[in-house]
Write a structure and sequence with these properties.
single chain; alpha+beta; 11 strands; six-stranded mixed β-sheet
């Protein structure tokens, strides 16, 4: 059956768009870059901090380009960049802006790690750090991920008092409910046993009454024979 006119054109456009979308969908999702789950990390002034970054590609990679950049309110600069030749080669640094930076990356065990270690932190290092990756094997498809570094004088201890109080209250309530349920079962058991004993007592008492009254099924009192 052939479609004609506007219906045929609409169907053709719909099929073309759908097939194009199916073709582009894996491409848009193939190259992934991650800096971990935390969007903000804290470090003490004068210490060192590892800025994590890993990548993955469903189609593999060749001569993959990567770089780390720093961005604050008034400064933008590329800290380090390099190339990963293939899956069997470790990342190689091309340029580095700061001697405090060390590339900690490795492709061993398919980790695809291009993390950097930033030493001797200063308060001015506070800002956004972006890990950028471009894969020529995927027609220069690129992706990036950003993490925010906050350099502080000292790390504040988190006060868990409120959390502990809430947990203690919840635990106490749960314990009380368990005790109530156990007590309820115990009372139910005692009442059941009491009713059973009372029932047995009533049955036994009823049997004694029948014997004394000489009712059928019981022993009648023997009368002496009548003298003639």
């Amino acid at each position: 059956m052939f479609w004609a006119g506007d219906r045929g054109k609409t169907l053709a456009r719909w099929l073309g768009t759908g097939l194009l979308g199916l073709f582009l969908l894996p491409m848009s999702w193939s190259l992934e870059v991650s800096v971990g789950k935390a969007t903000t990390i804290y470090a003490i002034n004068g210490s060192a901090i590892l800025l994590p970054c890993t990548f993955s590609s469903c189609f593999g990679f060749e001569n993959l380009y990567f770089r780390w950049s720093y961005n604050s309110t008034d400064t933008y600069k590329i800290l380090i960049d390099g190339i990963v030749k293939n899956e069997k080669s470790d990342p190689k640094v091309r340029t580095k802006d700061d001697d405090r930076i060390t590339l900690e990356g490795s492709t061993k065990e398919k980790m695809n790690n291009i993390s950097i270690l930033l030493n001797d932190l200063e308060f001015s290092d506070t800002g956004k750090y972006t890990c950028f990756v471009r894969n020529p094997k995927e027609k220069d498809l690129n992706n990036s991920a950003t993490i925010f570094l906050q350099v502080v004088d000292k790390l504040e201890e988190v006060d868990n008092t409120v959390t502990l109080i809430i947990l203690a209250v919840v635990g106490g309530v749960i314990g009380l409910l368990v005790c109530i349920l156990l007590l309820k079962k115990l009372i139910t058991f005692i009442l059941k046993k009491t009713r059973e004993k009372k029932k047995e007592c009533l049955v036994s008492s009823s049997g004694n009454d029948n014997t004394e009254n000489g009712l059928p099924g019981s022993k009648a009192e023997e009368k002496p024979p009548t003298k003639v």
